Amino acid sequence: MYFDAIAKIVSERTGCDVAAVKPESTFAELGIDSLDTVELLMSLEDEIGIEIELDQKVETIGDLDKFIQSKQG
Questions:
Q1: Active-site positions?
Q2: What is the CATH number of the domain that holds 23?
């Protein structure tokens, strides 16, 4: 549900093609470190209009999408 927004922001931050961002892509594979993740989450909050309180480790883009969906009820 939030995958497209996540992929767009990852693409903007890393310079990779948005089509290269897959649900199974790990943040490490995409060149995103822990600092980048924090900045990515802030951009994502602005994009989708909800606060994201990341209280568990997410490894992949799909994991992040599922995490956000689970917090939205």
A1: 33
A2: 1.10.1200.10
Q: DSSP assignment, residue 56?
A: S
d(CA 63, CA 69): 10
pLDDT in tens, 15-69: 999 999 999 999 999 999 989 989 999 999 999 999 999 888 899 999 999 999 9
Is the overall model pTM greater than 0.85, yes or no? yes
For 71, the token pair is: 């917090």
| Residues linked to residue 26 through DSSP beta bridges, in sequence order | 60
Confirm if 10 and 60 have CB atoms less than 8 A apart: no
**Residue with the two structure tokens 């931050």:** 13
| SS3 state of residue 29 | coil
